[in-house]
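User: Fold this; tokens only.

Assistant: Input:
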Amino acid sequence: MSQNNSATAESAFDVEFRSVVKHFADVKAVDDVSFGLRQGSFHSFLGPSGCGKTTSLRLIAGFEQPDSGAVEIAGQSVVGVPAHKRPVNMVFQHYALFPHMDVAANVGYGLRQRKPRPDDAEIGKRVAEALELVRLPQLARRRIWELSGGQQQRVALARALINRPTVLLLDEPLAALDRKLRREMQIELQNLQREVGITFVLVTHDQEEALSMSDTIGIMRDGKIVQFGTPEELYDAPVNRYVADFVGESNFFSGAVASCDERGAVITTASGLTLAAPLSRLGGRLQPGSTGTIAVRPEVIGLWNKAAAPQGLDVARPARLLNRIYLGDHSEFQVEAEGLGSVLVRLPKHSTAGQALEPGDEVVLGWERSKALALADI
């Protein structure tokens, strides 16, 4: 889905921004941003600190109001509508649970604040349903301090979901968890989102988190969305170097664009090496004389002992292996290649060449032109 798609029927979107601007003093935290999030989708805002992702989330929540532009939820304008009157709920990074209450009281807190307030039987029923949804029915009477980090995160989710919001906002909710638990909770969040069918909007600086869970991602920089698309689009067809560098890992070889046509671009690096690659299908043409970059993912590069190097590679450079890091299912190699400098290479465990290579070896590094991308160096 493109970033600017407001011609689609309003009912297709649970959240829509149209030319939204938000200032804080002289800083444009959100700068003319437009997008639409489809009903029941899982979306992430991804970017470094200060890029505008958290402000965008707060504009949806109602904690901030736009200086200009339209913000709609389920086809209805919410500009000027306070947070407590919007059909959204938020899960914060530190969960904001009440330590003096047990799990059931925390989960039912929002219902007890409603006017008119549901009766106790209805609240009890809804609390039980919410805890069943997050697979914690047996912990209703536990105190918050008796729970693990993952259990606390599920309680925070149950408390948010019990109000049956149109949109659930997630402000880096997994940041405090260890790596293994974070991965487990990523899967749990995906399953939960599909089960309840509510639109989830996640803010994160963790690219793996965004890629693994999202239907769409908005990559942000300086208050703008640089690229909006599926995880596959962002990884395989970044619009420029910034996106390719932020989503996954790449080796970049920059220089002057010598030529560019429908077959791709040719770039001459500072070392005098000429490299060619197809254009990203979403990145656009490069102008001869401008600065461009050839992006090569570490997993598409091969390493061979000199005697075993295949013939016919589009790029093949002599190199010296500096170090090897074993990571279980694959190994990462740092290589110093002639004319290219330092290059990261990632080889799967089953690669016999990778198993034989050791630091200090003289090797050949190479890749096929079709597996690289020519991008604007911005």
